[in-house]
Write a structure and sequence with these properties.
By secondary structure, the chain is α+β, with helices and mostly antiparallel strands. The protein is 16% helix and 26% strand. The protein has helices spanning 37-49, 102-107, 222-229, 263-273, 299-306, 336-342, 367-371, 398-410, and strands spanning 12-17, 20-33, 56-64, 67-75, 90-98, 121-125, 139-143, 146-149, 162-163, 181-182, 198-200, 203-212, 219-220, 254-258, 292-296, 321-326, 355-360, 378-380, 382-385, 422-423, 429-430, 439-440.
């Protein structure tokens, strides 16, 4: 469990002077799965502003899709929620995208690799910094209220060896820059014990495969995916795709993958390969052992791996690439100003010039396909929390009631927009756990 509770923890900061009540900050700080960044950074404003949510008259968006914050003030929560907020009270929602496994680790009060903050904390946006309105918010250590993961802790059973940031690693590529490299055994998991944590699962996340524009494919079968990501296929022609139009010349396949600890990577392992083959575990940056293979830290890094132009330390541009990410990953780029002006109706999505999302087993990985049992490459998200810090199951104060209201809101299909994410309440299929194939509800 987490460290001793201090001022500002419990997701609630109360500024008090003597017995005079002052403005309160209610904080919802979510850290973890990069596949959920678009969902939380889009829906934060809707939850805060909607009359069926917290009814905040003023909401402000900061940051970007992978590291965002939304602040609501002058809030009038919906009747029936039992929440009473003063006009000057603020509700602050933050989300920062990292690997899924870091979510339950932070909720469990563990230190996170390469982050300077204390146990159970992580570096997120400081919405009170003077530069927020100009060059962007500074950062500070905040308590992680929820650890977001695409899969349960026990589903992290993967390993990966290679440069942490794939071709974008600022290293020397000769094996001596070990701070930028995961060696054998350094990034290997045999499940993660999250049994001390509470959790809720309001949202289902679909994943998709992506190819670069030079690959003439609009669909991938399960067999093709298994052969590619188990390393059995070295060339596109090995899975029946004539990538360069010349049947006499094989075209080397480049795999852009996530490192172990990624919930997307774990879902690929359990929902697609499903025990019939083992995932690739070691990078092969020049393809001497088959396909070219890169591992990457986040889903945005994976897309950058696919579009890498060879202009940085690694001198070879990526071509004929195959990757996987949350289905909403690629779309029209949107600035912070556009998000702010939209009132939360637009999705913060990454621009992926040169990359195309393709079908899997003949189906598009979107909301309609997953909720109607037409598509199996998906995961039901986990929001892990420390029950000693927040108690949404048995709310007794404003803080707990706000968190319960968040779950209730996000589980309602009518309140969650978008063509990709689905709520648990609308799903016609379910998975008994991350290792099982979907069955009818």
């Amino acid at each position: 469990m987490k460290k001793a509770i201090k001022t500002g923890i419990l997701g609630l900061s109360v500024l008090a002077m003597a017995s005079v009540a002052q403005a309160a900050d209610y904080q919802i700080n979510i850290m973890g799965a990069s596949a959920q960044s678009g969902f939380w950074n889009t829906n934060a404003r809707l939850f805060l502003a909607n009359a069926a949510g917290l009814g905040c008259a003023s909401t402000t968006v900061y940051g970007n899709k992978d590291n965002g914050a939304t602040v609501g003030t002058n809030c009038t929560p919906a009747a029936g929620l039992g929440i009473s907020l003063a006009t000057s009270d603020r509700v602050i929602m933050r989300y920062i995208a990292k690997a899924s496994i870091w979510g339950p680790m932070a909720a469990n009060g563990e230190d996170i690799v390469d982050d300077p903050c204390g146990p159970g904390e992580f570096t997120m946006l400081d919405v009170d910094s003077a530069t927020c309105a100009t060059t962007g918010c500074a950062s500070k250590c905040v308590n992680v209220t929820y650890g977001a993961s695409d899969v349960a802790g026990e589903a992290f059973t993967q390993s990966s060896v290679g440069w942490i940031m794939g071709p974008l690693t600022d290293g020397d590529y000769d094996g001596t820059d070990q701070d930028s490299y995961y060696d054998i055994g350094e990034n290997s998991y045999d499940g993660y014990d999250a049994s001390d944590l509470g959790y809720v699962r309001p949202v289902v996340v679909p994943f998709s495969f992506f190819v670069t524009d030079d690959v003439p494919a609009d669909n991938l079968s399960r067999l093709q995916a298994v052969l590619a990501f188990s390393g059995q296929a070295a060339n596109w022609e090995d899975i029946g795709i004539e990538a360069n139009g010349d049947t006499s010349v094989d075209t080397k396949m480049t795999l852009c993958m996530r490192h172990a600890g990624s919930g997307t990577h774990a879902t690929l392992d359990h929902a697609v390969l499903h025990g019939d083959a083992g995932l690739v575990e070691s990078e092969d940056i020049d393809g001497t052992g088959g396909s070219i293979k890169w591992f990457n830290e986040g889903s945005s890094d994976l897309i950058k791996c696919m579009t890498y132009d060879g202009s940085q330390v690694w001198p070879v541009a990526t071509s004929y690439a195959l990757g996987y990410a949350d289905s909403d990953k690629c779309g029209t780029a949107m600035s912070k100003a556009e998000a702010d002006a939209s009132g939360g109706t637009l999705t913060w999505s990454s621009s992926c010039t040169g990359v195309e999302r393709i079908k899997y087993e003949g189906q598009v990985g979107d909301r309609a396909s997953i909720k109607n049992c037409m598509y199996s490459f998906w995961a039901a998200q986990y929001l892990y929390y420390d029950a000693d810090e927040v108690n949404p199951a048995n709310p007794v104060n404003n803080n707990d009631k706000i968190h319960k209201a968040l779950y209730t809101y996000m589980a309602d299909p009518a309140k969650v927009p978008g063509t990709f994410w689905a709520t648990q309440n609308e799903m016609k299929c379910e998975k008994a756990d991350d290792f099982k194939f979907p069955t009818k509800k």
